[in-house]
Amino acid sequence: MDKEQINNEEAEEQVWEYAGKVSEDDVLEMTQKAEKMKGFFRHVNALKKYWTDANDVLSLLRDRVSGKYSATPWRIIAALTGTLIYIFNPFDLVPDFIPGWGYLDDAAVFAAVLRFAAKDLEAYRAWRDGK
Fold it and tell me: Based on the structure, what is the number of domains in the chain?
């Protein structure tokens, strides 16, 4: 595995593997861990560039759980939640404790889910900002 770029195919596999295991309770749990998740994106170099997207994803999940917004299909909600669970797991494809490498897979998996969820995330942002 190249240190500079995790294989897109592997990243996509991880997105859908974790998404397939997601329940409504997992979505709720991720919203309850939002501040901790934001810390990952705020302080981990490989994830910093996704700070705004991570905040929007967590906001989308929060609005989903509260019933304020339900237009995003479950498949996308599950993929977003599964990806956050993946990032939160220190023993994923590349264990997080490996210096210089540990969070590269997390960034690649988050980038992959953003590609899949782009249209739905933009629709959510438009809805949220149109209030």
Answer: 1
Q: Of the given ranges (21-30, 74-83, 92-101), which has the lowest mean pLDDT?
A: 92-101
Contact 14, 109 (CB under 8 A): yes
Using pLDDT thresholds of 50, 70 and 90, give the confidence band for residue 88. confident
| Residue 3 forms part of a structural domain | no
- Asked if the model's pLDDT at residue 46 lies above 80, the reply is yes
Residues 86 and 14 sit within 8 Å (Cβ to Cβ): yes
What per-residue confidence (pLDDT) applies to 3?
42
The answer as to whether 2 is a domain residue is no
Tell me the residue range of the domain where 113 lies: 8-129
Work out the angle at residue 90's Cα, subtended by the Cα atoms of residues 116 and 82, and round it to the nearest 5 degrees: 30
What is the pLDDT of the chain when averaged over all its residues?
85
Whether 95 and 102 have beta carbons less than 8 Å apart is answered as yes
Q: Is residue 77 part of a domain?
A: yes
Residue 1 inside a domain? The answer is no
Q: Which residues contact 109 (CB under 8 A, 6 or more apart)?
A: 6, 11, 14, 15, 83, 86, 87, 92, 93
